Amino acid sequence: MLSRQFVRENPDVVREALENKGVDVDLDRILDVDEEWRELKGRGDDLRHERNKVSSRIGELKQAGEEAEAEEAIERSQELKAELQAIEERADELEAELERSLLELPQIPQDSVPVGADESENVERRREGFDDRRELPEEVEPHYDLGEDLEILDFERGAKVAGGGFYVAKGDGARLEHALIQFMLDVHREQGYHDVFPPIPTNSASMRGTGQLPKFTEDAYRVEGTNEEAYDDDDLWLLPTAEVPVTNLHRDEILLDEDLPLKYQAYTPNFRQEAGEHGTETRGIVRVHQFNKVEMVNFVRPEESDERFEGLVDEAEEVLRRLELPYRILEMCTGDLGFTQAKKYDLEVWAPGDDMEDGPEEGGRWLEVSSVSNFEDFQARRAGIRYREEHHESAEFLHTLNGSGLAVPRIVVATLEYYQNDDGTVTVPEALRPYMGGTKTIEGHDAVGETKLGDGE
């Protein structure tokens, strides 16, 4: 979150950020509340000072035998007490409103972020591996058809057991997901990451600390709550990303300078209620309600966050480089920059199975598999995560960053489509073969039950 002092002293900067990010918040109301709160706090301090003087005077008057004057002082002390109580009650109301309002203000984009209205104005920074792609079949079958043909993806049974937006990976499909998860964890472990396996339910305090609440309440799966219209800190949610529990591992803590930079990685299933778009966006496993992902979370000194951001991008890229999948890097413009981010790059892998309107000229489409974000001190301020250089020095807020390393289902999509062969099989990327028991080719499985019979049999 933004500090009160920053909002108070930089209203034009905040107003510009609201406009560029397309966020509708009544900033004037926030400034008016802050001004009234500060006036009341000042008036309260004056009343307490006067009351202390009157209280001291009462004792002096009684000791001097001046009872009439002492009674007048007592009456004045009671008047001051009542007035002070009214002021404090109003100040508490304004304090609560101000805290709620500050949670609705987005992060300020860095100066280098391109200004734009929406995703159409994101800037492509570079492509990797796209000009020397492997030779593909004349017609590349989309992953959702290929997965069913090979009996490694089952959408009908996924819907049967959980509803729309869920799927079952079977046989080599399941092995492929498991292999990708372990492969990603091994790559990032080489890069100095410490493993964390956090709880899947997360409380409201954690969701608020990373910025998911109150902004994205409707997208989250609520497990337990006392009020359908609101939420309490004890309410539980299925985590939308491992960013939430891993960042909050150090909520309300002070780290030491020697602890930084601190790099965690976590594999988790993730849950989101987002409905997605119509058409091919809702087919297959590109946009589903439950998906596996490896997440990287960094805690760093403020002066090092920009350099660490570039390093985090490279660490996410390494997975794509080793899988030899073509990809590109996009810089998000202000209108497509998330609520909490000061700067963000998306890594998008090329999947040739579907021709999309926003795909490359050569066909196929780009799928986001990682968002690498610098939050600066925005999350740390919300979650109370600080550090101090020396034990005797005051603590300050550190910077947090994260990036997916990577989103597993979309890598499965890209692998099935990019590595498929003319005969309908799929070549396993060389980097994954040790994780699949040496399997070089996914050839499919026989159907189970009556579905293995041909039409009319």
From TrEMBL:
Superkingdom of origin: Archaea
Where are the residues of the annotated region Disordered?
110-130
Compartments where located:
Cytoplasm
Q: In which pathway does it act?
A: Aminoacyl-tRNA biosynthesis; selenocysteinyl-tRNA(Sec) biosynthesis; L-seryl-tRNA(Sec) from L-serine and tRNA(Sec): step 1/1
Please verify whether the record's keywords include Hydrolase. no
The main enzyme category here is ligase
In this chain, ATP is annotated as bound at 272-274, 288-291, 368-371
Q: Which UniProt keywords apply?
A: Aminoacyl-tRNA synthetase, ATP-binding, Coiled coil, Cytoplasm, Ligase, Nucleotide-binding, Protein biosynthesis
The primary location reported for this protein is: cytoplasm
Q: Which reaction does it catalyse?
A: tRNA(Sec) + L-serine + ATP = L-seryl-tRNA(Sec) + AMP + diphosphate + H(+); tRNA(Ser) + L-serine + ATP = L-seryl-tRNA(Ser) + AMP + diphosphate + H(+)
Classification via CDD domains: SerRS_core (cd00770)
Q: What's a Pfam family this protein contains?
A: Seryl_tRNA_N
Q: What GO biological process term is on the record, naming one? A: seryl-tRNA aminoacylation
Quaternary state and interactors: Homodimer. The tRNA molecule binds across the dimer.
Q: What functional role does this protein have?
A: Catalyzes the attachment of serine to tRNA(Ser). Is also able to aminoacylate tRNA(Sec) with serine, to form the misacylated tRNA L-seryl-tRNA(Sec), which will be further converted into selenocysteinyl-tRNA(Sec).
What is this protein called in UniProt? Serine--tRNA ligase
